[in-house]
């Protein structure tokens, strides 16, 4: 089981100019209790900024990089997804290393030695 699992709600439909609810659920499934955990929430800023733009602007505007607001929002979402993946990899790497160390310990402790004469 993953030490940290993120769930996100799907949004079936949204109405331009109306609030959109997002749910982020984090499960601590590690071996140590988590305390004073901070979840930085960049998602609403990007989404709120996008949703505050008038529909006519969304359809016609292109930024200096040649992106529409929708393309720019998608880029923000992809950057955030990449950050979450990198964080998860860092967490999993530490757990995998602890597992390997435990395996070497158990092998040393309980494997039959070549010096055992019985």
Q: In brief, what are we looking at here?
A:
With 118 residues, this protein is mainly α. It has one domain (4-100). It has helices at 43-51, 55-60, 69-110; strands spanning 4-8, 24-28.
Characterization of this structure:
With 118 residues, the protein is mainly alpha-helical. The protein has one domain (4-100). Helices cover 48% and strands 8% of the residues. The chain has three helices and two strands. The protein has helices spanning 43-51, 55-60, 69-110; strands at 4-8, 24-28. Strands 1-2 form a two-stranded antiparallel ribbon. Helix 1 runs antiparallel to helix 3.
Helical segment count: 3
Total number of strands: 2
End-to-end distance, in Å? Answer: 41 Å
**Beta strand %:** 5-15%
How many structural domains can be distinguished in the coordinates? 1
Shape: elongated
* Helix vs. strand class: mainly alpha
Q: Rg, please?
A: 23 Å
Described by strand count, sense and barrel closure, the largest sheet is: 2 strands, antiparallel
N to C succession of SSEs:
EEHHH
Strand order of the largest sheet: 1-2
Oligomer: single chain
Uncertain stretches of 5 or more adjacent residues:
none
Overall mean pLDDT stands at: 76
Percent range of helical residues = 40-55%
Question: How are the elements arranged and paired?
Answer:
Blueprint: E1 4-8, E2 24-28, H1 43-51, H2 55-60, H3 69-110
Antiparallel strand pairs: 1-2
Helix pairs in contact: 1-3
């Amino acid at each position: 089981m993953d030490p940290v699992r993120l769930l996100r709600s799907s949004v079936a439909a949204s109405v331009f100019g109306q609030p959109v609810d997002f749910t982020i659920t984090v499960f601590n499934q590690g071996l140590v209790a988590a305390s004073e955990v901070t979840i930085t929430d960049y998602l609403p800023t990007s989404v709120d900024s996008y949703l505050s733009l008038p529909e006519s602007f969304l359809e016609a505007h292109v930024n200096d990089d040649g992106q529409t607001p929708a393309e720019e929002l998608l880029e923000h979402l992809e950057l955030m997804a990449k950050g979450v993946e990198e964080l998860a990899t860092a967490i999993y790497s530490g757990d995998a290393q602890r597992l390997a160390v435990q395996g070497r310990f158990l092998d040393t402790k309980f494997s039959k030695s070549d010096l055992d004469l019985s």
